[in-house]
C-alpha cells in the first residue's frame, strides 16, 4: 500500500498536473452536506499549481462560510517566505457535492468548481478540480487532501489512503506536502490577492 503522508518530496512533483483529453466524470460525496462542510480546513497535501506558487505555499488553510440558500463565502490563506497572502470570494453549491467559488482579481471574476470526493466532515476531506482546454484537448487536475487540524489522525489517514488506492482519477504520487511548523507559519507581512489579476486559485 502506498502511504500518502510519508513520502519524500521530489523536484518532479512541482509541475502542474495535465493529461490528454477532456475531464473525466467523477463521483462526489454521496448526500453531501454543504452546511456540515463549512468551517476551517487545513491543507495536508495538494497537487501543485500556480495559485500556491508551485511547492512554495505553506500553512495553507481554507475557510468556508455557509449563509443559507446554498450560498456563502470562502477565504484561502497561505504563507510564502514570511508573507501571508489571502484571497476571498463568493461560494455556492452548484450541484450536489460540487461547490463553485467566485474570486475577483483586478475587477475580473473567475469561477472554479470544487468537487468534494469524500469527507467525514469532522476530520478529513478529499477535493478535486478539473479544467478542460479544448484547443489543445487537454485537462488540468487539481486536488487537495484536507484536515480539520494541522495533523491528520491515523484513522483518517487510513481512510484517505484506501480511497486513493481505489481511485482511477487521482494519482497519489502527484501530491506535495504542506508545512505547519512554527518557522514556516511565521509571517511579518499580510497582503490580499483580490486586487491582483494574474493569480488563480
TrEMBL record:
Gene3D superfamilies, per database record: 2.40.128.20
Signal peptide: 1-15
CDD domains: lipocalin_FABP (cd00301)
GO biological process, one term: lipid metabolic process
GO cellular component: cytoplasm
Keywords from the named record: Disulfide bond, Signal
Pfam families xrefs: Lipocalin (PF00061)
Lipocalin/cytosolic fatty-acid binding domain sequence ranges: 38-167
Presence of keyword Metal-binding: no
PROSITE patterns per record: LIPOCALIN (PS00213)
GO molecular function, a single term: pigment binding
SUPFAM superfamilies tied to this protein: Lipocalins
Family, as annotated: Belongs to the calycin superfamily. Lipocalin family.
Official protein name in the record: Bilin-binding protein
Native organism: Papilio polytes (Common mormon)
